[in-house]
């Protein structure tokens, strides 16, 4: 029952729209439900990144700590979004903290298991890579737009 | 237009001033006598004695025709003077000018409004219209991005629309302090095909040009046709009626054919680099 | 062609013609030789015309020189265009003033009266027709322009000599005046004879010619005039290949040649000032010292100035290359989209009056060339 529920949730995720039933099956088998309370960390910078998350409900912040500035939030992610890709690339360590901004329900997926399956089955690997690249590209565009600081008030006038 | 020359303003009174943000205020004015009712997306020219005249989009509810409302961000001499205005002040006004958001195109369809910064002002009359009869449209989504939580324009209005549950409203900021628990990221990050049918949605966007370029490319990638995307452009304007040449944007006069354009009209110009 | 009767009169009677126009209440405006150039100004009569002068023009060069032919209209044109009379270089539009607590706007009247343009060339008629479209045919009309325009009497002069910077045949505007005049003259000097051919283009022109009772031109006279016009058409100093040019320029945004032009261009705005169709203008607000009133002045502006494209925080077109591109693509390309015809009439003024001799025909040709 859990497995079917998870598969349905994965299928509804826009980011996974291109995956076939077989792939979704395989991913669902790597997933379990989890809940994080407001303020709780889903991931911690420098720790092994064996997992990634699909947010079922809630909101999380990608954060880092900058000396003299304290905690800086880089982006928030919400319902239906995928959190984390560090599990895909060496050294498989989280680059940022991920904190629940409110009580958040997620599907936690075993990235380590998935990446081993990708290595063994390149066809699956290619499809998953493509899926995650789509998310990655969107995030890079977002980050670039943020860096441009487009609403900044011009000086003088 | 009224009886005078199209370049001559009409004196009007500032009825009320609402300080929206650190550098932004909303003025309510009596419309010029005999003036045409304005359509969402149009602008007028506001004159301050001795300082000059600037184009400002009409940002009030088109149903309240007895009031012309303008939200102004103080960035230059004239706009700063307008932001400092107090009720009872006299200023000059001409208008309304320019093209309107083609809201008719959206009837019966999903609607997506994407605004950034002060770009929410020219879209507000359109949102009032949507709010007045949401049943005439499919799913309505309003997405708004600001620089920081302190820069969110019409905060309470957005909150009220959100709570009305007649349409989705989502707000995000590019950067926020520790106490900000709302969305953080650019407005593009709020765009999700969960909210609309890419095959039929009609999109209205206004904000910094670079923001609109990101928004439009993302939408095209989701399968939204360019002919259903509308944007509002901004250029230097002196006359507002096509005589002065300042607002030229490729073959267009932003004051006459714009400020609202169909994406297909300006697609080739958005990529053109002015240096 | 004009179905009206063509008359002729001896060159000595040009004064009678101008006097006849003046007697009808028109102030005469036309070419005079002054400070080394032919400029447009008030004319007392035919004696004020730059008789016996002709101009010699090249990229970045304009010289007046004496000619032993002693014709009235042997020159082509100087830096002035007729636009200065219809869209003055500086013009008060209105005055805002405080009366007690109230703000008032007082419009400045247009009272230039009836004016006659003497010696308007075919390319200049095309420029006037273009200004009519800009200010008189859109959703909004400029009453000031139209008031001035309505009070004009126009005497065109056909060009019987083409300058080295002329290319009106490329733009299909000349050298023969086809419409937009009350009278059109062709000056003919042949053998010992020196006469003008004249035809009316309007009933006002007809009435004047009736009063002057000139003799009808003979077929031989008309042949002579036609040969001169044909000769002028053949001797254009410049040529612009307009076929497909608007499309080529519209897609030329990243052409490297813009930067090469920018390296020469001084962004001095001369080309836009002398261009007879450049209409861009700005407004200046001139407050009184006591702060009780302010005058709004409209003045010529140029897309070469930094302020022209100013948008909160800075200029959209920061570089000279981008401004030159705006000017030329507007003139030769987007103008067609806006007003149904090219903004260039082929008068060549921008070539002669460019201090570094940038030649629009040559640059347009280069930009039009395919990238290798």
From TrEMBL, chain A:
InterPro entries: cNMP-bd_dom, cNMP-bd_dom_sf, RmlC-like_jellyroll. It comes from the Bacteria. Residues 15-116 form the Cyclic nucleotide-binding domain. CDD domains: CAP_ED. Gene3D superfamilies: Jelly Rolls. SMART domains: cNMP (SM00100). Transmembrane segments: none annotated. This is Cyclic nucleotide-binding domain-containing protein. It comes from Sulfidibacter corallicola.
Automatic annotation (TrEMBL), chain B:
The keyword Iron applies. Binds 1 [2Fe-2S] cluster per subunit. It comes from the Bacteria. Transmembrane segments: none annotated. [2Fe-2S] cluster binds at residues 239, 244, 247, 255. PROSITE patterns: FAD_FR. GO terms for biological process: pyrimidine nucleotide biosynthetic process. Residues 7-103 form the FAD-binding FR-type domain. Gene3D superfamilies: Nucleotide-binding domain of ferredoxin-NADP reductase (FNR) module, Translation factors. One of its GO terms (molecular function) is 2 iron, 2 sulfur cluster binding. Its cofactor is [2Fe-2S] cluster. Keywords: 2Fe-2S, Iron, Iron-sulfur, Metal-binding. It comes from Sulfidibacter corallicola. This is FAD/NAD(P)-binding protein. It holds the Pfam family DHODB_Fe-S_bind. The keyword Kinase does not apply.
TrEMBL record, chain C:
GO terms for molecular function: iron-sulfur cluster binding; metal ion binding. InterPro entries: 4Fe4S_Fe-S-bd, 4Fe4S_Fe_S_CS. Residues 256-286, 335-363 form the 4Fe-4S ferredoxin-type domain. The keyword Transport does not apply. The keyword Transmembrane does not apply. Keywords: Iron, Iron-sulfur, Metal-binding. Pfam families: Fer4_22. SUPFAM superfamilies: alpha-helical ferredoxin. This is 4Fe-4S dicluster domain-containing protein. It comes from Sulfidibacter corallicola.
